[in-house]
Amino acid sequence: MTSLVGECESRVSSVLARNTKELGKQHMFDGHADTCWNSDQGTPQWIMIRWQHPVVIKSLVGQFQGGFCGGHDTIIEGSDGNGKWQELAPWHLEDKGTEQILELSQSPTISKIKITFNTSTDFHGRIIIYKLDIIGNKSL
């Protein structure tokens, strides 16, 4: 198993005040504990990740700002690139600042993954993520 985020392209629903330099999506993957992606307000918020080649996903690792996470209504979806999404699992996030791991019971082969935060524990619907990692393998 290895981290798959180094070989991906990512998109996010929004960035707080459009400040991509200080609060952009790249900070979820940079390995620095003091940087983060901070969404703007409103729900839902989402992250979409795409790979050039199919991958097999085993788990997701996230570290959120306590008070600014997706709560109990976060959905993980995958697509093999055909345009159709299938739900892989709900992610029942706790409102805390430590790492949270979602192990997938089935390990799908996909080329895209989407994490949708339908609600937030923040009153304004913001999401703050310090770390996002996706663990798995390249599909053979």
TrEMBL record:
Q: Which Gene3D superfamilies match?
A: Galactose-binding domain-like
Concerning InterPro entries, the annotation shows: Galactose-bd-like_sf
Top-level taxon of origin = Eukaryota
UniProt-recorded name of the protein: Nuclear receptor 2C2-associated protein
Q: Which organism is it from?
A: Meganyctiphanes norvegica (Northern krill)
